[in-house]
Amino acid sequence: MQKILDTVDAQLETSLERLFAFLRIPSISAQPSHAGDCRKAAEWARDALAGMGFSARLSETSGLPGVIATHHEAGPNAPHVLFYGHYDVQPADPLELWNSDPFDPQLVDGPRGKRIVARGAVDDKGQVVSFMEAVRAHLAVNGKLPVRLTVLLEGEEENGSPSLAELLSNERETLAADFVYVADTNMWDFATPAITTSLRGLAAIEVRLHGPKRDLHSGLFGGIALNPIQALVSILGELKDDTGRIQIPGFYDGITPVSPAQAENWAGLGFDARAFLGDVGLSTPAGEADQLPLAQLWARPTAELNGIYGGYQGEGSKTVIPAHATAKLTFRLVAGQDPEKVLKHFERFVTERLPKDARVEFKRGGAAPGFSLSPDAPFLRAATAALAAEFNKPAALIGSGASIPVVEAFKTHLGLDTLLVGFGLDDDCIHSPNEKFEMACFHRGTRAHARMLTAFAAQP
Amino acid sequence: MQKILDTVDAQLETSLERLFAFLRIPSISAQPSHAGDCRKAAEWARDALAGMGFSARLSETSGLPGVIATHHEAGPNAPHVLFYGHYDVQPADPLELWNSDPFDPQLVDGPRGKRIVARGAVDDKGQVVSFMEAVRAHLAVNGKLPVRLTVLLEGEEENGSPSLAELLSNERETLAADFVYVADTNMWDFATPAITTSLRGLAAIEVRLHGPKRDLHSGLFGGIALNPIQALVSILGELKDDTGRIQIPGFYDGITPVSPAQAENWAGLGFDARAFLGDVGLSTPAGEADQLPLAQLWARPTAELNGIYGGYQGEGSKTVIPAHATAKLTFRLVAGQDPEKVLKHFERFVTERLPKDARVEFKRGGAAPGFSLSPDAPFLRAATAALAAEFNKPAALIGSGASIPVVEAFKTHLGLDTLLVGFGLDDDCIHSPNEKFEMACFHRGTRAHARMLTAFAAQP
Q: Entry's NCBIfam families (chains A, B) (predicted)?
C-alpha cells in the first residue's frame, strides 16, 4: 500500500496537469451551444481511461453520451465496483464575479494552502480525476487493480439527468456491479472525512377540504355552517404533539432507531444547531424533542406543510365562509418507510377527523423512499477503515435531509446501494463564482481513494 | 282604536294611490343621473307629511337630502318616537326581467291575493307609506297623535348611507327621541309578524405568524426548522373544542344566555335547520352543540376563519418551509361582548401558544358591538302586544346574524335603541326584478302601525 501512496504523492504535479486539461473544456450541459464541448469532455475522459488500460467507450443516449470504462483483470472473484461521476459542469455566470476565467484553471493561495480554482474544480471533474489518479497509482505499482472496476461518467447531471434512466437501462449488463461508489459529496470539515450513509425520500400530497357548496355570508350563516378552513386547520393542527412527534398512526412504522454507534459518531461532530438555525433567523430545533438535532435533519421523517390557502386573501377583511380550503404537504421519509403507506396513513388520519358535512379530496404527488446504508455493509466498513487510516480519525457517517436523484436511480434501475464519499468542503462555492477545490483535499482524496480500492478487495 | 282601524280600511284605495305616486318617482340613489328624481321623492314625502299637519322640511347634506318632519302636539309627557325609513330605491336593472315597468306600479294577482309590483314596492317606499297611512288614520279620527313623532327619511340607504352620520350629527337636537322605530324588515312568514330584537356585531383581525427569516428548503431544514404554517394551524386548530365552543378565555364574557321565553318563542317558529343548510349543501348545524340552531345564528358569537394563506399555492408541490403564514378572522359578536376585549383575548390566545422562534403580527380591522333589545323595553312590550292583537298570534322575536348599519349609526350618534318592525316577506324580491309587496301585508301593516302608535303611548 505504501508504494501506491508514494506513487500518488510523486505523480501529484502531473495529476494536476491532467485535471487542468479536463477543466479547460467548458462542458456546460444546460447550454445547447456547449454540446460539442460536452462531447469533447466525454472523449477526454474516455481517452484518459483507455490510456490507463480500461476498455472505454461512449454510450450514446437521446441526450449527451455517457462514458463507460471497464477494468476487470482482477477476476470474477474480486468485488465489482461501479464508480460514478459526471463530466458536465454548471454554467459559469455571472462571469464578472470570477477572479479568473472559469475555464482557465488556476492554482491560488488560500488559508489552507493552494487551491484549484475553476468551474468544475470540485463538482465534479476534480473529484473524478482524484479517483482516476488513485487508479493510475494502483496500476503503476501492480499492473492491475484489486477490484473489478466499471467507471460510469454522466454528462447531464447538472441539467436534471434527463437521459440517466435510458443510460442505465441500455447498460444494465455492463453496470451489474456489487455497489456504486460516488465521489460527488463533501467532507465534514477540512480534517474530517465523511461518508453519506442516509438520504431522506419524499412523498407529496394535496388535501382539499370542501364544506358548503358555495361561499357563504358569515353574517347570515356564521355559527351554523361548517367552515372548511377551520375544519382543515383543526385536523392539521393535530399532526404533531407538543414534543414534535407526528401523530399519524403507522407513520413511523418500519423505521430503525438511530443506533448508539451512529449517535456517538454524530455527537462527535460538534454540530452547532444554534449557529445552523441562527443563519436563518431561528434558534431552537423544532423537531422531535427526544432526537438529536442532526437526527431531526438526517434520520427522522417529517410532515411538512409547504402551502395552505382558502377564502379571502386580499387587503382588509371579507366576511366569507369559503366553500373549500387546501393544504399542500410533503413528507421527508427515511429508510424503512413505505411512501404509499405513509400517504394512505395520512389520508386515513384526515378522513377519520372529518366533521359532518365535510368532504375531502386528495391529490397525491411524487413518492420516493428514503435510503440508508446498513452499518454492516462490507464496502462501508472497508471505506470507513481506509478513511480512518488516511486521516487518522474516524469518518463522519452523515446523512442528508434531501434526496440525491442518482442514488434513487441506481436503486431503482440497477438495484444497487451507493457509497457516497467525497472530498469537497462546504465553502467550495459549487454552482457559484470562484468554485475551488483545496489542493490538500484533492491530494488526500486521491490517497484515500487508493486505500479504499485496496480495502474493498480485502472485505469478504 | 276600532275607529282608527276602520279608517285605515276605508282609506285603503286612496292609500294605494298615494303609494303609487311615490313609486312612480325613480329615486335611484346609486345613479347620479337620478339625483333630481331623488330630490323629487324627498319633496313628495315632505309635502305629504306637511299635508297631514307635520312641520316638514328637507335637511341638506353633502349628498342627498334627508326629510325631517315633526308632529309634537301630543305634548312633552308623551313618548317621543323617531320613525326612520328611506325614500331611495335600488337600480332596476336588469330591466328585461321585469314583467312591467319598474316605475309604473301595478296591482297583480298572486297566490296571496293582490300584490303591488314596482321597484321600491316594499323596500322601502311601501313600508314608509304604510306607516304614514297609519298616522293619517290617527289624525283623521283624533286630530292628533298619541305620541310625539319625528319622521326621518334618508335618501342614500341603498348606496351605503355616505351622509347619514352627517345628517344625524346636524339634526341631533331634533332627533333626540326615546327610541327609533324602523320599518324596513320582514315578517317571519305571511301569518306571523316579527320584531328583530338582536343583531350581531363584528370584530376583524389578521394574524401573521413569522418563522425563519426566509423561505427554506425542506430537505436541508425540514425537521429542525420551525414551520410557520404548522404553528399557525396548530394554534387556530384549538379555537373550538369538539362541541363547537370557542376556547378563547374571556371570549363569552358579558353575554346573557338565551332566556327560556326567547327559546320558547324561537322553538315555536318551526325553523328547519336541515332545509336552511340543505340549500347550501350542508345538513348539520356546526355551532355550539348545546345551542338551538337559531341561537347559533342569532344569539351566539362566532370565531370565523375567513381566509388563510402561506407558502406554495400553485400546481404540484414545492418543498418549501415558508417564512410566514397568515390567517384572517372575523368574530360575530352579540350584546354584552366588548369588541376591543375580544380582539385582545384572541391576541393573548395566540401569543400564549406561540412556539419558540415564532413571532406574531396582528392587524386589527373594524369593530362594532352586537345589539340586543331588552325584553323589558316598554316600546318592545307595546309593539309585541299591538302585533299580537292585529295578527292573533305572538310576534316572532327574531335576530339577525349580521349587523344593520343604521341601527349602529343610531346607537353611535344618538345613543338610541332601535325597534325593527316590518311587513315584508322573504319572497318579496327586494333588490331584484319584479319586487313586490303583498297588498295584505301593506294593509295589515298599516293597521299594526296604527295599533303600535296607540300602544307606545299607553306604556309607562
A: PRK07907.1 (NF005914), PRK08201.1 (NF006053), PRK09104.1 (NF006579)
List chain A residues with CB under 8 Å of B304: 218, 222, 227, 230, 319, 321
- Domains present along chain A, CATH in parentheses: 2-198+371-458 (3.40.630.10), 201-264+293-368 (3.30.70.360)
* Binary contact (B273, A332; C-beta < 8 A): no
Across A215-338, the runs of DSSP E, i.e. the strands, are 216-217, 304-311, 320-321, 324-333
Question: In this prediction, does ipTM exceed 0.90?
Answer: no
How many beta-carbon contacts under 8 Å exist across A and B?
A: 279
Q: Which three cell numbers stand for residue B229?
A: 404554517
Q: For residue range B71-86, list pLDDT tens digits in order.
A: 999 999 999 999 999 9
Tell me how far apart the alpha carbons of residues B341 and B350 are, in angstroms, rounded to a whole number. Answer: 14
Neighbouring-strand partners of residue B69: B56, B151
- Which residues from chain B sit within 8 angstroms of residue A198, using beta carbons? none
What are the two backbone dihedrals, phi and then psi, of residue B430, each rounded to the nearest 5 degrees?
Answer: -65, 145
Instruction: Select from B223, B327, B332 the Cβ nearest to the Cβ of A297.
Output: B223
The DSSP line for B34-72 is: GHHHHHHHHHHHHHHHHHTT-EEEEE--SSSPEEEEEE-
Name the burial class of residue B415, with classes exposed (0-12), middle (13-18) and buried (19+) by CB atoms within 10 angstroms of its CB. exposed
Residue in chain A nearest B296 by alpha carbon: A223
Measured between alpha carbons, how far is A298 from A263 in angstroms, rounded to an integer? 12
pLDDT digits (tens, 9 = 90+) for B374-415: 888 999 999 999 999 999 999 999 999 988 889 989 999 999
Q: Which residues of A touch B328 (CB under 8 A)?
A: 311-313, 317-318
* Cis, peptide link before residue B375, omega less than 30° from 0: no
The answer to whether A78 and A62 have CB atoms below 8 angstroms apart is no
